[in-house]
Amino acid sequence: MSVILTVALFVTFLYSICIKYIYWRHRRALETSLKRILKCLSPGGGDGVGVAATSPHGEVRALLVTAHPDDESLFFAPTVIRLVEEEVRVHLLCLSQGNYYNQGTLRREELFSSCAVLGIPASQVTVLDHKDLPDDPNAEWSIPLVSSLVKKHIRSHSFNMVLTFDGRGVSGHANHTAVHEAVSHLASSGQVSEDCCLLSLVTVGLFRKYVSFLELPVSWLWPSALCCITGPRGYAKAKAAMSCHVTQMLWFRHLYVLFSRYMLVNTFHMLPRGPRNLKIY
């Protein structure tokens, strides 16, 4: 029994060292990842200049596209927190007010409060209330409509980084997957400028999703275009941001905040790009 206990303590010690190393290494690696992404997309390969970490003006202009108020806290908090820390100018485009239970006005205010905690000022938050984009898991959002709205927002602010859901939408919500399809369409049809990178948040399996910080080494080692990790302070900020969504804090969301790896780490893949201005719809 003592041997088993000794081995368990030794493994725990090694794992804690591994986690601390990941936190330390990530603070250096994120800057490199941002430079690499923008360098690959800049004409002629570029020199990576313009990354916020190398400029006090924050030349990375990032747009987070979500479906509902609370998506930014439930799924993307580590990314927003780390980008803001790197002095990246982060904007949010939320495509609905979350009016499924007729709480749209209240949820909109909760979103602004959450964004303030995460470091996104109200002037950089846009919440749409389109009659054809209801908060409803059974509603089929128009992909051409969502694409046009996102494209208009990208062009009006000259964003060079767009982040959104992948095809499984983390939770499988139909509105999440519709947002992915719309942004993916923009990438595949070449309707955004070549110097704008489009990234999708990786959906992981159920086990990986709910083992909290224990999952960090897997996400760190698994190939991705961008990996954003927060430490204890970042987790506390993400938790505080989610707490702003009072209407959504049901018992199971308290468990989510406690155990979900999305409160600590986000990994992204680059969306494949197609020929310029190819019309599919």
Keywords:
alpha/beta, 281 residues, 7-stranded mixed beta sheet
Q: What's the overall geometry?
A: globular
- Biggest pleated-sheet summary: 7 strands, mixed
Radius of gyration: 19 Å
Beta-strand content: 5-15%
Unreliable segments of 5+ consecutive residues: 45-58
Mean pLDDT: 87
Discrete helix count: 10
Q: Note the run of SSEs as H and E.
A: HEHHEHEHEHEHHEHHE
Q: Helices and strands: which structural class?
A: alpha/beta
Distance between the amino and carboxyl termini: 65 Å
Percentage of residues in helical conformation = 40-55%
How many extended strands? 7
Strand order of the largest sheet: 3-2-1-4-5-7-6
Describe this structure in words.
The protein is α/β, with parallel strands linked by helices. The protein is built from 10 helices and 7 strands. The protein has a 7-stranded mixed sheet with strand order 3-2-1-4-5-7-6, sandwiched between helices. The protein is globular and about 65 Å long.
Record the SSE blueprint.
Blueprint: H1 2-41, E1 61-66, H2 71-74, H3 77-85, E2 89-94, H4 104-118, E3 125-127, H5 143-157, E4 161-165, H6 174-188, E5 197-201, H7 206-209, H8 216-221, E6 226-229, H9 232-243, H10 251-259, E7 265-270
Parallel strand pairs: 1-2, 1-4, 2-3, 4-5
Antiparallel strand pairs: 5-7, 6-7
Helix pairs in contact: 3-9, 4-9, 5-6
